[in-house]
Here is the input.
Amino acid sequence: MNNYLIPANSKKSQLILGFFNAVDLILFGSGVGITLILLLTIQSTDVVVMMLILAPALITGFLVMPVPNYHNVLQFIVNVYTFFTERRRYYWRGWCYNVEEENQ
Here is the structure.
């Protein structure tokens, strides 16, 4: 018998807490760290300044937020970028392609 069934969520087991990889946690940690440093050094009651101080944590949190069918928003942005910047003209080399025709 020896039939092995691979679970559908086997990729999730490679992620930390099922959602993040090491790069995501480093990115989010650096954003939160910068925000904490800014909160401790800049004393302000202005709403605009406080939003700018909180921006690193908010932006990195948005980038590592899980999205359906993708690992996270950052991976989705990378996939969209590579789709639009990579070569999009495909050359046929199927089973009926004759290599000798190319040499002549």
Summary: DSSP finds four helices and no strands in the chain. The two ends are 53 Å apart (CA to CA).
